[in-house]
């Protein structure tokens, strides 16, 4: 208990700034401030409005995290589900994007000026890789094969603004979805599965950070004779 208490006080900044809101999982400022203020505002006033909006959302998120119990156990489905539930509440109360919405936003911003279907698909692949997502079903290869088939048939690169020819590609994609058993009405289920995978990954990072923090503190003279607590016993609310 003594080790836990002193680790708590000496590691508060680590958990507050790294573990709970790790940079790679934190919402970028543009997502906090997506409704920051009218574009007519200029200079300092606009920056002030953005800052206040970010501050409000950040405080809302921390307020929820201070109340909800999170168990750092990525191997426990119940703990993962609870963590995902807490983070969903944070997003809803603080008006933040879900991971799916963030991916959609990234796709929209990175592909809006891409004229051809091939570059579009390659960009989607690049986004997936950078987001750390896996293509377990091999869908990307199937989509590229479908594009190859269409372009071979039309004997030219497929342009995204050609609605008639793009319909041919969409028809091929529909065949792929049917083959894989993917239905549009099941999208909410797929989004939930994605959020659980992300929750598990974040808990794994939290566990890693907690163990590293304890190992660091263990090397200090005042901790050398004390046993490290089980990570699952730590109450993150006390670190915020």
Structural class: mainly alpha
Order of helices and strands: HHHHHHHHHH
Quote the average pLDDT.
Answer: 79
Largest sheet: none
Strand content: under 5%
Shape: elongated
Number of discrete helical segments: 10
How large, in whole angstroms, is the Cα Rg? Answer: 23 Å
The helix content, as a percent range, equals: 55-70%
Low-confidence stretches: 1-37
**Distance, first to last CA:** 19 Å
Which terms would index this structure?
single chain; 240 residues; mainly alpha
Please tell me about this protein's structure.
It contains 10 helices and no strands. The chain is mainly alpha-helical and 240 residues long. The chain is 65% helix and 0% strand. Helix 4 (43-67) packs antiparallel against helix 5, helix 5 (77-94) packs across helix 10 (187-218) and helix 7 packs antiparallel against helix 8 (139-154).
Topology summary:
Layout: H1 2-10, H2 12-19, H3 29-32, H4 43-67, H5 77-94, H6 99-111, H7 117-130, H8 139-154, H9 163-180, H10 187-218
Helix pairs in contact: 2-10, 4-5, 5-10, 6-7, 7-8, 8-9
Short characterization:
It is built from ten helices and no strands. The chain has 240 residues and is mainly alpha-helical. Mean pLDDT is 79; it is low at 1-37.
């Amino acid at each position: 208990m003594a080790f836990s208490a002193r680790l708590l006080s000496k590691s508060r900044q680590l958990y507050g700034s790294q573990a709970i809101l790790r940079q790679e999982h934190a919402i970028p400022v543009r997502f906090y401030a997506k409704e920051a203020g009218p574009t007519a505002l200029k200079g300092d006033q606009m920056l002030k409005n953005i800052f206040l909006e970010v501050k409000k959302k950040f405080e809302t998120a921390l307020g929820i995290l201070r109340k909800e119990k999170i168990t750092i156990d990525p191997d426990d489905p119940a703990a993962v589900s609870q963590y995902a539930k807490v983070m969903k509440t944070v997003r809803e109360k603080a008006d933040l994007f879900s991971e799916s919405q963030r991916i959609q936003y990234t796709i929209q911003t990175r592909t809006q000026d891409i004229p051809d279907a091939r570059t579009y698909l390659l960009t989607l692949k690049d986004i997936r890789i950078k987001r750390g997502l896996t293509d377990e079903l091999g869908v990307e290869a199937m989509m590229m094969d479908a594009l190859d088939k269409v372009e071979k048939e039309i004997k030219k690169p497929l342009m995204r603004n050609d609605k008639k020819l793009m319909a041919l590609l969409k028809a091929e994609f529909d065949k792929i979805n049917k083959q894989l058993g993917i239905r549009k009405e099941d999208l909410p289920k797929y989004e939930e599965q994605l959020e659980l995978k992300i929750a598990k990954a974040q808990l794994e990072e939290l566990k890693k950070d907690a163990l590293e923090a304890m190992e660091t503190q263990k090397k200090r003279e005042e901790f050398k004779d004390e046993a490290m607590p089980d990570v699952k016993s730590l109450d993150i609310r006390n670190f915020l």
